[in-house]
Design a protein that fits this description.
The chain is an alpha/beta fold. It has helices spanning 26-38, 63-71, 99-102, 107-117, 156-161, 172-178, 208-219; strands spanning 4-9, 24-25, 42-47, 55-56, 90-93, 123-127, 150-151, 182-183, 193-196, 199-202.
Length: 222
């Protein structure tokens, strides 16, 4: 049977009190979607609130993003509570600043990822701000999934570079480190995908393809 991957998207569309819109960063879902499908996987979507999640960072000149929006069921995503984790071999948390508000401490998302990971073979992956979902993700023994693990996520330096240090509810790199993660950073906005066993994380949008490729490798037993 082919592998099946679930891509999780934020439903949060407001960038703090700035009056600016946010959402899921389209390339961070689209590029992994393309790689997973090329590997022969079935790919489904889920969003925190269900329905059509808000989009951010869309590049109309990118044919992969255009194909994703045209072919993937972006407008009819289920909520996490409506998804059966047992059907999936991996979950990927796509980024976008919206994730910083509705991914952390979301019990339904955490349950999906925990169930997939603790089946002994499942892979949990996240890219850019997607690792915000790992903030509230604990294993059955109560320990944070990221404790003692090498991870990559949008860095404090990158948050400063985009001028949102005082807008986001917390700094993702710092919070992951507080949970015991070993944060591996590359230079700002450079591709950086880090795999630690069955946990795969990426630093920024440029890392989305690398994360997906590492997920494929992990699911292939490589």
């Amino acid at each position: 049977m082919s592998k099946r991957v679930l891509i999780a998207l934020t439903s949060h569309g407001e960038l703090g009190a700035t009056g600016r819109a946010t959402g899921f960063y389209v390339s961070e879902a689209a590029h992994p979607w393309e790689i997973f499908r090329a590997a022969g996987y079935e790919v489904d979507l889920v969003s925190v609130a269900g329905g059509e999640p808000p989009k951010d960072g869309l590049d109309p000149s990118d044919p992969t993003q255009e194909a994703f929006l045209a072919e993937a069921p972006v407008s009819t995503t289920p909520r996490p509570e409506e998804v059966d984790a047992a059907r999936y071999d991996a979950i990927l948390f796509a980024g976008g600043h919206g994730t910083m508000w509705d991914f952390p401490d979301n019990p339904a998302l955490a349950k999906l990822a925990r169930t997939i990971y603790e089946d002994g073979e499942g892979v949990v992956a996240a890219v850019c701000h997607g690792p915000a979902a790992l903030v509230g993700l604990t294993l059955a023994d109560g320990s944070p999934l990221v404790a003692g693990k090498r991870v990559a996520a949008f860095t404090n330096s990158e948050e400063k570079a985009v001028g949102l240090t005082d807008v986001v509810p917390f700094l993702l790199q710092s919070r992951l480190e507080e949970l015991g993660a070993i944060h591996i950073a590359a230079d700002d906005f450079q591709s950086n995908a880090v795999r630690d066993g069955r946990l795969v994380t990426g630093q920024n949008p440029a890392s989305a393809r690398g994360v997906a490729e590492q997920v494929v490798a992990a699911l292939s037993g490589k």
